[in-house]
């Protein structure tokens, strides 16, 4: 099955070559929309063989991505940003994934360098279907259009890949602050016109949380929770972010309650991984060791491939002096990391060897 790399870029000459190198031999074409680069971004993209379209920036990521989709000619679309790379292990299985006859979109595991939790799931691989398009000017996704299409054509399925497919470095160093400033500006403008967008209220709350503006974060969450008929996925996000707010304030019982409320929303279990991790951290702050261990068990039941769940649980068991079960969990973490994140697997192995445990 043919695949198009679909990107929007601006002044990414320093990072674009690494991104493009990660998809050599994987994609059949590349469509890149440039929104006003002043550096060598366009020349680099064209030298690589991409079809480049230069369009004015409209402070709307969804609009730019949808312009790029118009120029795709293949059956499948892979969306990357310049600060992302495709992992070799995922590239090896990509052709097989695209042969799944009823998969409409594939949820990919992305490793987030410099943030905790270090993994997120993103809808970045999907069929080039005329009814799939991006929405929202920031934190743009195709998810709403996917659900709408499934309601009309129920044979379509959502696939999922649990090995790291994408590595994202955009939050490292000063890049993170620049992204947050841009996100705040775009989302505030959108919410002035669309105060009913509970999803972006939750995302804006996350931006304020990251910079320690707790009162502003609380206001955003209150606005989001006031919206009527909030979809379960958005309600989940709001309660999750409220848990993060309480955690930032050190209000651990309230954080636990908010995380548990999020977990009770009727949403896909794949969405819950970060919540389980943060819930366990809150429980550990209150020295509720048994609850934290049970939370890691719950997470592993949802996703047996979540290496961080085994790693954190193993570390806690080690702290509690339960050596044998601790080593079992840590060995399982190393086994999973050898595929998902070989460098971390090596680091963890060396650390345990230095402690005389392996």
Structural account:
With 358 residues, the protein is of the alpha/beta class. The protein has 2 domains: 3-168, Spore Coat Polysaccharide Biosynthesis Protein SpsA, Chain A; 174-305, Alpha Horseshoe (Serine Threonine Protein Phosphatase 5, Tetratricopeptide repeat). The radius of gyration is 21 Å and the shape is globular. The protein has an 8-stranded mixed β-sheet, with helices on both faces. Helices cover 53% and strands 15% of the residues. The chain is built from 15 helices and 8 strands.
CATH class of the largest domain: Alpha Beta
Instruction: List the total number of helices.
Output: 15
CATH fold description of the largest domain: Spore Coat Polysaccharide Biosynthesis Protein SpsA, Chain A
Mean pLDDT across every amino acid position: 91
How much of the sequence lies in strands comes to: 15-25%
Largest beta-sheet characterization: 8 strands, mixed
Provide the CATH superfamily of the largest domain: Spore Coat Polysaccharide Biosynthesis Protein SpsA, Chain A
Write the layout of secondary structure elements.
Layout: E1 3-9, H1 16-21, E2 29-34, H2 41-48, E3 51-54, H3 61-70, E4 76-79, E5 84-86, H4 88-97, E6 103-112, E7 119-127, H5 143-152, E8 157-168, H6 174-193, H7 198-210, H8 214-226, H9 232-248, H10 252-264, H11 273-285, H12 289-302, H13 307-319, H14 323-340, H15 342-354
Parallel strand pairs: 1-2, 1-4, 2-3, 6-8
Antiparallel strand pairs: 4-7, 5-8, 6-7
